[in-house]
Design goal:
Layout (H helix, E strand, L loop, with lengths): L1 E7 L5 H13 L4 E6 L7 H9 L5 E4 L9 H14 L2 E4 L4 E2 L3 H34 L9 H4 L1 H9 L4 H8 L3 H12 L1
Parallel strand pairs: 1-2, 1-3, 3-4
Antiparallel strand pairs: 4-5
Length: 184
Amino acid sequence: MLIGYARTSTLEQKHGLEAQRESLKAIGCDRMYEEQTSSVGVREALREALSYCREADTLVVTKLDRLARSVAHLGEIVNELEAKGVGLRVLDLGLDTSTATGKLMLNVLGSVAQFEREMMLERQREGIVKAKALGKYKGRKPTAKAKGEEIWQLVSEGVSKREVARRLNVSERSVYRQLERERT
């Protein structure tokens, strides 16, 4: 049985999730698991997919970075799949771990993917430092501070802090923090 797993990092990547879904359907995945969460966040659908896999099944992903966040994490997943007698296919690489060559290529490509990610993060950090030095990087604009008066108005009208957060599209913690700032 082919079991598909699709993931995007954010809700804005709806088209990416749809594209993965279509690719997995096109190769005949019998069962699909998908989620929209960061690779470092809790990934319930991945857990469910791995639990569902049985001997002779194959877990299918469109890209390696949709599955694992690091070489170590990839190794954990592959070990779990191998212990169950489950294969892994990565569509964009034409990779299948049911062969010795496929297993070798998976390890090499996983290492390259992690290297690329680390290089991208290093370049990003360097860019932020440079932008800060030039006074062009200010970080994210604080939304709750900008809505301080609205927060106070709604709270003074008896609206619950949870409802204030929902109405103003800020976290409940931000509402409390803003009220605390105003008291001092």
